[in-house]
Amino acid sequence: MTNKKISPQAVMALKEALSVITWKKDDLRDFLKLSMDNTAIIGSINWSGTKRESVKELVERMTNQLDLYKTDLMNLLLVVTDLTDFPQLDFWDEDGTKKAKAKKAVENLRKHTKGYIQITKEQEQAKVRREKTESRIAKNKSLQDELSTLRLLFNKLAMNTNFQQRGFEFEKFLIELFQLFELDPKSSFKNYGEQIDGAFTFDGTDYLMEAKWKQQVNRTDLATFTFKVESKLKIAMGLLVTVDGLTPEAISPDFKSIIIMDGLDIISILDGRVSLPDLLYKKRRKAIETGNIYIPFNQL
Fold it and tell me: Which CATH number does 144-299 carry?
């Protein structure tokens, strides 16, 4: 197979498929690292531009140095043509168009590789390769053990009837959760007499954090926290975490510098249905698009 010439059409089809099978560049880089042997080239690619530009640079450098990268190029063709679903797109594909585009790109790649890759070989062989790749990705990225530990801790906190103690422990829990996702959290501190439950950095923005686990948050609670945020630098934002949600009248158009997480969001993270960074990103984007600062995970 490695003695076969790779057609220009197959190379173009591979570029397109790699550009659309994931949404985030981090997921694409992980996919590439787990599909190639000579992974050093991945770190030398410029990833600061668009995903499509990075893929173009990668594939063209590999095709220009086939003496080094032909086996890896063939492996990429094999792994991509074996794809039948696209779980990395689930959270971002609100209308199904992203998965449809990925499926079409992979099918097009299959069409252009039939001449020198035995795509029609027994399905069991493809299944073995697919399961092997998925297993390596899961092993490399899995947070399941850590999330399971935090889920047990969260359940234990839920049974604590000492609300003051539970509040302190909940702040510690959130710090551990944010550390797990490398969001550089800071524990509670006082600033000119104000009590701040925590802080973290996400996507280049500094956030203040308020943690509530006693009763539903009302409009006064939101107004107080918003004032804390808006009295800092203009680029600061706030994340209010309320396990019990909000009272019906709490939301106001005046609260524009904060977003809200609730107990459902936390459980969704602990269950592995969404990562904390992805959830924050989508909540912030929805708040910008709609003005709604409180959209639970199951409505995103």
Answer: 3.40.1350.10
Residue-wise DSSP of 204-244: TEEEEEEEE-SS-B-HHHHHHHHHHHHTS-TT-EEEEEETT
pTM above 0.85, yes or no: no
What pLDDT, in 10s, does the model give residues 190-208?
665 567 888 999 988 899 9
**What is the DSSP annotation of 40-101?**
HHHHHS--SS-HHHHHHHHHHHHHHTHHHHHHHHHHHHHHHHH----GGGTTT-SSSHHHHH
The packing angle between helices 144-158 and 163-180, to 10°, is 170
Assigned token pair, 273: 């249905």
- Rounded CA gap, 287 and 300, in Å? 11
Find out whether 136 and 129 touch, Cβ atoms under 8 Å.
no
Q: Give the residue extent of every domain in the chain.
A: 8-141, 144-299
pLDDT tens track for 55-94: 999 999 999 998 899 889 988 998 999 899 999 899 999 8
d(CA 267, CA 132): 29
CA-to-CA separations, 184 to 123, 148, 176, 246, in angstroms, rounded: 45, 21, 10, 27
| Rounded-to-integer distance, Cα 268 and Cα 75, Å | 35
| Whole-angstrom distance, CA of residue 260 vs CA of residue 295 | 8
